[in-house]
Amino acid sequence: MADKHGALRKQALGAFVRSARDRVTPQQAGIAGGQRRRTPGLRREEVAQLCDISVTWYTWIEQGRDVSVSAAVWARLATVLQMTRAERAYLFELADLSDPEHNGTAVPAPTVSLQSCVDSINVPAYILDRHWNVLAFNAALDQVFAGWMGGQAQPNLLRFIFLDAQAPAIVVDWETRANRVVAEFRADIGVYLDDADTTTLIDELLTGSPVFRHWWSRQVVVEREGGLRAFNHPQLGYREFEQITFRLATQHDCKLVMLLHGAANVEGSNAG
Questions:
Q1: What is the band of 138 on the pLDDT scale with cuts at 50, 70, 90?
Q2: How many Cβ atoms sit within 10 Å of the Cβ of residue 38?
Q3: How confident is the model at residue 244 (pLDDT cuts 50, 70, 90)?
Q4: Which domains does the chain have, with CATH numbers?
């Protein structure tokens, strides 16, 4: 079954590359006009030459054959075929490889629109970038963290969990959550491990937190999941939420996280 699935992906990949080739004209690719063509797109020989690979190899790619193609070759193909960002992401998804240019993609700075987004949500909400910096958060979220978010020039959820003395008291079942958080972060950061900001953050956490150092060495990777999140607020007491997470359509390495109120919060607020 796995072999059949892999064959289907390669066939889809070949068809996608062939379609992209047909859309690029010689003029767009910087090739001087010559003899008349039956189709307006590039020839296989031209794409192969521009990508510095053999015509046979490129033909096998379009035919969906079982050939091993490096990420660097896919990147050259995406450039030569003038793919959009969405097309390039789809290409690398089908190839089951990380785009080597991701490491150079800048993480967006907080914007008014991001802040307006979370302010419009009537439950605790925040937006995380790939380094788990909190790009935007609302007042309800700051209350959950007992004002910690608002007191930081650049709040970072990992620094709170592993380096702030308040975290084990505020986060219910802190050790279990810390274990899970490290595995989720590893999944998020895999393609950015060579990025300078990533290595700086990881080194800081390894140096400052024996717990982070222990779980990081275990090499566990899991996807970020929703579910129960509980906090012990210094004034409001026990608070329980259901967490849901969405990826931003315009920035796939950023996430919108919302904490939906649970029954325990209502009881807690009635208790005053």
A1: very high
A2: 5
A3: very high
A4: 2-103 (1.10.260.40), 112-271 (3.30.450.180)
Pairing of strands 237-248, 251-261: antiparallel
Contact 241, 228 (CB under 8 A): yes
According to DSSP, the residues that pair with 246 across neighbouring strands are 256
SS3 175: helix
Q: Which helix (H) or strand (E) holds 86?
A: helix 85-95
Contact by Cβ (8 Å): 42, 24: yes
Distance between CA 78 and CA 85 in Å, rounded?
9
Determine the straight-line distance between the first and last CA of the chain, rounded to whole angstroms: 58
Looking at residue 102, its amino acid is H
Neighbouring C-alpha atoms within 13 Å toward the C-beta of 217? 8
Number of other residues whose CB lies within 10 A of the CB of residue 123: 16
| Inter-helix orientation angle 44-51/71-80, to 10° | 120
Q: Return the sign of the alpha-carbon dihedral for residues 63, 64, 66, 71.
A: positive
What is the per-residue pLDDT across 35-62, written as a single tens digit (0 to 9) for each? 667 777 899 999 999 999 999 999 999 9
Task: Count other C-beta atoms under 10 Å from residue 238's C-beta.
Answer: 14
Q: Model-level pTM greater than 0.70?
A: no
Asked if residues 174 and 168 have their Cβ atoms less than 8 Å apart, the reply is yes
